[in-house]
Write a structure and sequence with these properties.
The protein has two domains: 561 residues, no CATH class; 66 residues, no CATH class. Helix content is 69%, strand content 3%. The chain is built from 24 helices and two strands. The chain is globular, with a radius of gyration of 29 Å.
């Protein structure tokens, strides 16, 4: 059954092609149902391929991580036979790619279904689903690619689709600007991806993941570190880490299903996947830097989230913070923990974004939490499911977020040099996460009514509430896939470990693990309690909890805007002038020289046969004279 892997990306691509040709004629809701069916079919064939992978026998050599394991390569066609470079359009079926594909197609299908109701009445209804199917296809090519070139195809695809979807309502200047911001920022990461690929090809002679894993031991330490840091640059762009995170908060300008698709199911997890996929290359120096970047990003974004008023902006900064957790896990060598948190985050963050979209939909596009309150009475399904997502991301046991976050904190604790410091940063971030998510939940669903009397909040249609209920169930019980209590319960770890070159095994004694888990749970409880005292009981002045520094996200956007609009403009103008003078000047100079030479020899091309005959005769005479003189001498 693994031979059917090509159908996983083919179905969303087919949906895109049909909608491109006949989308406007299909109209609403048929265009939405077609796109959803294509996504659901992709999920079905992912399940079939996953079953086929489980049926494969483990091999002793060859997983993409270099440690062996179930693996299957499907070559679609020979793509780039260029000298010594041979790149096939090939797909890789192994535990890591299947794990990613399962939640990408599963959560992606729920987002498609949700969009059928959410985008009702939009004049560009069919175009939205055309982009959404292309987005899903691109992400699947990214995670299923057998080599870096195929992955880069998907990498650029999700970047393009994010631009199209973030700026979908481009009539709004803020949406158009946000799309361009995402596109430009991600180009910085693309530079890291391309140069890392070139270095690996130069050093190893291959861009295949299997080949890289097998030959990575021969990389010089300096080369491996350079490749690792370039991969970090690439991952920081896609997965919104410091300093390249600035595009993600503005991505909220797109329709809410786009936010869920970008933040939960597809694009932002691409950087995490890339680093885990190429884990054999990562050096100790690079891992330490990755851990520091992740911890710093997690804390920075969590602080920014505590004072946001837009319901989606809170979740955007939360995503940046949770991605920081994943980078902290990778930097600690806990690759399974990183993927575990990717999956649980897809469940609860997809749920929270879709829940926020349900609120916005029910309140007539209102996004300011200060104009909400008491919505649990009129939107009970949205409220209950959102509360499940809140408790999961807050790290309340036994919901899924507790298990994946706790595993990351434990991995950070075991870091040899600065482990306790990284753990402390992660713990403070966990406390802040519990606080700001509690604040959001209390402001939106509890307390008195603060919305305008002209608003008539109501529960969303079943196409929107059904995905909420499914994701709430996954967010609640998703942790069972990797419970640390019994070795046999570490299902995800045992499944992924063969694809990892350096699997992390915890060495902390059981009593200490339990103590650390208790401290983490206590931190979540403290965060929730502080939020309740401030936003439900009014016992803590709330203005003290929303300083302007945090409300304005440390003024990073203002600083960038002031620079780009001020000194930066002069720098850009100077660069443009230099380009015109030197680059264009050199090109135009060569063209001018060629033209002058052409004009100089043009008289020789008169078009008259007698001139050419005379020229031949003169040339022959000169040649005879020259030969005669040579003979005399």
């Amino acid at each position: 059954m693994v031979e059917l892997v090509w159908l996983i990306p083919a179905l969303p691509l087919a949906g895109f092609a049909i909608l491109l040709l006949a989308g406007p004629r299909l109209g609403e809701p048929r265009a939405g149902w077609l796109a959803t069916a294509a996504s659901a079919g992709s999920f079905l064939f992912t399940l079939i391929t996953f079953g086929g992978l489980l049926g494969l026998e483990s091999v002793t050599k060859g997983g993409a991580g270099g440690r062996g394991g179930r693996s299957f390569e499907s070559t679609l066609f020979e793509w780039m036979p260029i000298g010594g470079l041979e790149v096939d359009a090939a797909l890789l079926v192994d535990p890591l790619s299947m794990t990613m594909a399962l939640f990408v197609t599963g959560v992606g299908t729920l987002i498609h279904l949700y969009s059928v109701g959410y985008m009702h009445g939009d004049p560009k209804y069919s175009k939205f689903f055309l982009y959404l199917n292309l987005f899903l296809f691109s992400m699947l090519m990214l995670v299923l690619g057998e080599n870096l070139v195929v992955t880069f195809l998907g990498w650029e695809g999700v970047g393009t689709c994010s631009y199209l979807l973030i700026s979908f309502w481009h009539e709004r200047p803020t949406a158009a600007t946000a799309g361009k911001k995402a596109f430009v920022t991600n180009r910085v990461g693309d530079f890291g991806f391309m140069v890392a690929t070139f270095l690996l090809w130069t050093a190893l002679g291959t861009v295949s993941y299997t080949g890289i894993a097998a030959l990575s031991g021969g990389l010089a330490t300096g080369t491996a570190t350079a490749v690792s840091l370039l991969l970090l640059l690439a991952a920081a762009g896609k997965s919104a880490q410091l300093p390249l995170y600035v595009w993600l908060p503005d991505a909220m300008e797109g329709p809410t299903p786009v936010s869920a698709m970008v933040h939960a199911a597809t694009m932002v997890t691409a950087g995490v996947y890339l680093l885990v996929r190429l884990n054999p290359v990562l050096t100790d120096t690079a891992l330490l830097i990755i851990a520091i970047v992740g911890a710093a990003t997690a804390l920075f974004a969590a602080l920014a989230a505590v004072a946001q008023h837009d319901i989606k902006k809170v979740l955007a900064y939360s995503t940046i913070s949770q991605l920081g957790y994943m980078f902290l896990a990778i930097g600690s060598g806990a690759y399974v923990a990183a993927i575990f948190h990717v999956i649980t985050h897809a469940f609860f963050k997809g749920l929270l974004f879709l829940g926020a979209g349900s609120v916005i939909h029910g309140l007539g596009d209102e996004q300011d939490m200060r104009r909400m309150g008491g919505l649990r009475a009129v939107m009970p399904i949205t409220a209950v499911t959102f509360i499940v997502g809140w408790l999961a991301i807050a790290g309340v046991p036994p919901l899924s977020g507790f298990w994946s976050k706790d595993e990351i904190l434990l991995a950070a604790w075991e870091q040899s040099d600065i482990g306790p410091l990284l753990w402390a940063v992660g713990l403070v971030t966990a406390l802040l996460t519990a606080y700001y998510m509690s604040r959001q939940t209390f402001l939106v669903f509890f307390g008195g009514q603060r919305w305008d009397d002209s608003a008539h909040p109501h529960e969303s249609p079943v196409t929107m509430t059904l995905p909420l209920m499914v994701l709430a169930g996954a967010a609640a019980i998703g942790g069972v896939m990797n419970l640390p209590l019994v070795a046999d319960w570490l299902v995800l770890e045992h499944f992924l470990e063969p694809t990892l070159a350096h699997a992390h095994h915890f060495t902390t004694p059981t009593w200490q693990k339990l103590l650390l888990a208790f401290v983490a749970a206590l931190a979540a409880l403290i965060g929730i309690t502080v939020a309740a005292l401030a936003w439900l009981r009014s016992r803590i002045p709330t203005d003290k909890l929303e300083p302007a520094l945090l409300e304005n996200s440390f003024y990073v956007d203002s600083i960038i805007s002031n620079f780009v609009g001020g000194p930066g403009t002069k720098v850009f103008e100077a660069a443009a002038a230099a380009d015109r003078r030197f680059v264009d000047g050199a090109v135009n100079g060569v063209a001018k020289l060629v033209r002058m030479l052409g004009e100089a020899v043009r008289p020789l091309q008169s078009g008259y046969l007698r001139h050419y005959a005379s020229g031949v005769a003169v040339g022959a005479i000169v040649l005879v004279v020259w030969l005669a003189l040579r003979g005399v001498s």
